[in-house]
Specification:
12 helices; 11 strands; 491 residues; three-stranded antiparallel beta sheet; eight-stranded mixed beta sheet
Length: 491
């Protein structure tokens, strides 16, 4: 049969396409470029003290993945060198250990690369893993000889006992052991599927383990305390059982109680927050009060012990009714002026005026020595101030005067206006004269009058003036009652 030129051309084209297609299919499958030309591969040499059964074309694994094969194994003057052909697509740190392992007891060795650190450069072509970072498995013959000698050292009767007890322990457990092996296999497969996550967990668990090592003393102390608690619970087992039995009804009663207190208990607890804050600041004062209060109560109760069940009048302490009225006079500095003071006979209770009302005399004055101006500042020991703001600030308490003459609030916060001034008749208009800036206070003149003179009946009133009531004098024949001293003259 004669073939034309066109047919020959078509046959050549078909043959070329077939050869090219076969090459495309077989080259990746057989990995011929890597085997023949080393494409996508690089070589790393491992120095071993001995071969350990390692052979050519053995697998090389990294983190559970097959990353290459052993290209050759040959002897050297110091041991054995194995050349590994590794996949270039997988980056392996240069700081690794190479361990030769056996898949089974009859052989099938492989090289397992274990990274010691993820930092540093990666393995490159021509790198060498020295022998101090390599290990090989023991010789199987030596291991079998050692096992045989160990079994010979065990008495036959004891070995028979071990076998019999093992039979009793595992006899009839075939299905359970099969399920265990099946579950372990499934677990291993899942672990292999999540090998990257497991490797990350192992690598990042070191800080946690280091913290456990650093706190070993605390862990031991905690374990010792836990052992003490468990021993106490074991000793009080009956009480614990009783608590568990009665705990549920008691908890139910407590819940019912809280339900009944639901409308008011939250309000009480909210109010106790501010009380707790104050108590936290004044904790030292409260402690001192709790220490001194029992002693004070005992002293008060002991006043009348000497005269108890007796008819004697002065064999023990007695209570004096000497009122010492107006000695010293009442402090009126820092309060409302006299024309704004309400009578004590009124029974209504209007709201208190704005501002701080307290005796504003020097802190060492005899007037109202236990007043607000001498309140100790708890958070600043040694400082006394009338308000919290002054206690917490760096300013000191400043008095208005010595207390013998009235002076109102300099900030006009009490009455809403300046200190009242007398009317100037020479000035036009009927309004009061604007208050001029007060001159610097002069030194107070010494007071010659006593608060109360019983010989003349004169006394100093709260307004600082001296009054005389003759029926209070010692020479008066009538009307000498203590009530007269409490009633203003002419009433």
């Amino acid at each position: 049969m004669h073939l034309t030129r066109r047919i020959w051309t078509q046959l050549v084209v078909v043959a070329v396409v077939m050869v090219f297609g076969v090459a495309i299919m077989f080259f990746p499958v057989l990995k011929l470029p890597a085997k023949w030309f080393g494409v996508g591969r690089y070589n790393v040499t491992v120095q071993l003290p001995q071969a350990g059964g390692l052979y050519e074309r053995a697998n090389v694994s990294y983190r559970g993945y097959n990353v290459g094969q052993v290209k050759s194994v040959h002897l050297t003057d110091t041991g054995v060198e194995a050349v590994m052909s590794l996949d270039s697509d997988i980056k392996i740190p240069s700081d690794v250990e190479a361990e030769v392992h056996s898949v089974s007891a009859i052989g099938e060795q492989y090289v397992d690369l274990l990274p010691r650190s993820a930092d540093g450069p990666m393995l490159r072509n021509g790198d060498i893993i020295p022998s101090d970072r390599t290990t090989v498995p023991p010789n199987i013959s030596t291991l079998l000889d050692a096992t045989n000698k160990g079994l010979q050292a065990i008495p036959r009767d004891n070995l028979k006992t071990v076998v019999d007890e093992a039979y009793l322990a595992f006899g009839g457990l075939g299905p359970e052991i099969a399920r265990f092996v099946k579950s372990a296999t499934a677990l291993a497969l899942d672990a292999r599927a999540n090998i990257n996550e497991l490797n990350t967990l192992v690598d990042e668990s070191r800080p946690i383990l280091d913290s456990q090592t650093d706190t070993s003393d605390s862990i031991q102390a905690w374990a010792a305390n836990l052992a003490t608690i468990t021993a106490q619970l074991r000793t009080e087992d009956g009480s614990v059982d009783k608590l568990l039995q009665d705990g549920a009804p008691a908890a139910e009663e407590a819940r019912a109680l809280f339900d009944r207190l639901q409308p008011t208990l939250p309000i009480v607890l909210a109010n106790l927050v501010s009380v707790g804050e104050v108590a936290a600041v004044y904790r030292g004062n409260i402690e001192q009060l709790l220490v001194l209060l029992p002693q004070g109560a005992a002293a008060v109760q002991a006043v009348g012990v000497a005269n108890r069940n007796t008819k004697q009048d002065y064999n023990g302490g007695f209570l004096s009714f000497n009122l010492n009225l107006n000695l010293p006079p009442a402090c009126n500095t820092g309060f409302l002026p006299a024309q704004q003071i309400r009578s004590a006979a009124l029974e209504d209770y209007p709201p208190a005026p704005d501002g701080d009302l307290y005796c504003r005399v020097p802190q060492d004055s005899p007037f109202n020595v236990r007043g607000a101006r001498n309140t100790p500042c708890v958070e600043k020991p040694g400082k006394r101030a009338p308000t919290v703001a002054i206690c917490e600030s760096d300013e000191n308490y400043v008095p208005l005067n010595d207390g013998y003459n009235w002076k109102g609030d300099p900030n006009a916060t009490l009455s809403g206006q300046a200190v009242p001034q007398p009317r100037d008749p020479s000035a036009p208009g009927t309004g009061p004269v604007e208050a001029a800036p007060p001159p610097p206070p002069a030194a107070p003149a010494p007071v010659a009058a006593v608060p109360y003179d019983p010989s003349t009946g004169s006394y100093v009133a709260p307004d600082g003036r001296v009054y005389t009531q003759s029926d209070l004098a010692s020479g008066a024949q009538q009307g000498q009652t203590w009530q007269n001293m409490l009633v203003p003259p002419g009433n």
